[in-house]
Amino acid sequence: MKPTAAAATPQLLRRVNAQSVLGFIRDTDVATGTELMTRTGLTRASVIAVCEDLIRRGWIRELDARDEDQPPGPRKGRPARRFELNTRAGFVLGIDIGAATTTAAVADLRGTVIGRASGSFRATDIPAAERIDVVDRACRRALAAAGTGPEKVLAVSAGIAAPVDRDGKVLASQHFWSLFDVGLRAALQDLHGWTVLLENDANLAALGERWRGSGAGVDDLVVLLAGERLGAGVMESGRLLHGRGGAAGEMGYLDLVEGVGSSDGIASLARQWSAAGGGPAAGGEASARRVFEDAAAGDPAALAILDRISERMARVIASVASFINPEQVVIGGAVAESAAALLPGITALLPRFTATPPRVTVSPLGDSIVTVGAVRRALDYVEANALGLALRP
Questions:
Q1: Candidate ranges 12-16, 19-23, 92-96, 283-287; pick with highest mean pLDDT
Q2: Is 191 in contact with 93 (CB distance < 8 Å)?
Q3: Prediction pTM value
Q4: Phi, psi of 269, rounded to the nearest 5 degrees
Q5: 241/233 Cα distance (integer angstroms)
Q6: Span 87-125, pLDDT tens digits
Q7: How far is Cα of residue 182 from the mean position of the Cα atoms in its chain?
Q8: Pairing assessment for the beta strands 221-225 and 196-200 based on DSSP bridges
Q9: Are strands 60-62 and 82-85 parallel, antiparallel or unpaired?
């Protein structure tokens, strides 16, 4: 075993160094060799060797040594070598697969989304082959909108509303979860040769929020997808928590929490309580939005519903805070914009229910929060495996 381990060490170092250099170049417009040395801790010789290898492989480009910002006249020393990411060397796909719809987003290597498409499932309980076909068609339409094709996809990350373990296996012990265990990874591999990373949707929401949302840079973070049903993505010390079978963050325990009683989300509660009070119950999410609109206009019945939802969400967040103790809890998903009206009530009530109240915010990412996290997850894979991925012209 020793010769094998020793032989693998240089390969591991090359991969880690390439990941470090690519990560910095991705986050800046232009990087010099000196900046790369400072940020990665590598020697100049190592930085140049890594950059030249990445140039040969097509990941980055070296810019002309001339610097237009320099004043005219003689210059001292050798011009700095400057490098930039080849953002269109390949693309990643981020997919949000819900019970009723799916959305695919195509992003370049900086994570900029350049194509998006959605599709609807004709029913919740449909054959696996039909569900895969809807997802595949959404992916192909998104790629077409981005002006590229399946052969340029370097990695795919897909979020589903079911527990997924660290190996990408779905915990399908309940009927609803089993709807998502459709063999998507193998199917897209067979169709297009894609590497598919399967993950729980709330976990991807946490990645997206920490990357580009109100939780940017927060290491101890919980994101609640709070539309129809509550689900939590949990980050502890900057790492996603999965649990043994991927069920960390599942909210079924709320059935047992006093003053809560179920994992129904904000939109579902607004609709239920509006209907019970004779309000606008029809129209699904539209009726939930109407409750918030009526409350903003001062309607007493709608305001009473928001008070009830605020207290219920305060209890939910307090239960999370009591055993996870995050720095921040973010309310995310399509309901996030409306949920901003709940923040004053939640914040005021939290100290009644927990000694460790977190900061509570709403996500600015709206219903794209899962696809943003899926793009981040796919980019992480690409950066970690850049030396093993073949770029196609």
A1: 92-96
A2: no
A3: 0.91
A4: -65, -45
A5: 8
A6: 999 999 999 999 899 999 999 999 999 999 999 999 988
A7: 21
A8: unpaired
A9: antiparallel
Which residue's structure tokens are 């190996």?
A: 167
Nearest-10 crossing angle of helices 2-26, 33-40: 120
Place of tokens 């305060």: 314
CB distance 142 to 79 below 8 Å: no
For residue 381, which amino acid is it? Answer: Y
Separation of alpha carbons 170 and 199, rounded Å: 9
Residue type, 366: G
Q: What CA–CA distance (Å, rounded) separates 357 from 313?
A: 13
Task: Report which of 61, 154, 59 is spatially closest to residue 107, judged by C-alpha positions.
Answer: 154
Give CA angle at 29 (26, 30), nearest 5°.
100
358 strand-pairing partners = none
Sequence-separated (6 or more) residues with CB below 8 Å from residue 88:
108, 109
With CA atoms as reference, report the closest residue to 26 among 100, 89, 102. Answer: 89
Amino acid at 113: V
Residue 65 reports pLDDT greater than 90: no
Is residue 203 within 8 A of residue 373, CB to CB? The reply is yes
The residues pairing with 158 across neighbouring beta strands, listed in sequence order, are: 95, 198
> Residue 338: helix, strand or coil by DSSP?
helix
The token pair that represents 317 in the structure block: 């967040």
Both tokens assigned to 355? 């000694």
How far is residue 316's CA from residue 314's CA, in Å, rounded to a whole number?
5
* Residue 34 phi, psi dihedral angles, 5° rounding: -65, -45
Sheet with 60-62, edge to edge strand ranges: 31-32, 82-85, 60-62
Tokens 């219903």: give the residue. Answer: 367
Counting beta carbons within 10 angstroms of the beta carbon of residue 359, is it exposed (0 to 12), middle (13 to 18) or buried (19 or more)?
A: middle
> What whole-number distance in Å separates Cα of residue 269 and Cα of residue 331?
15
**Residue 109, CA atoms < 13 Å, CB-side half-sphere:** 27
Is residue 26 within 8 Å of residue 376, measured between CB atoms?
Answer: no
Which residues are 156's β-sheet partners?
93, 196
Those residues with Cβ within 8 angstroms of residue 253's Cβ, 6 or more apart along the chain or in another chain: 319
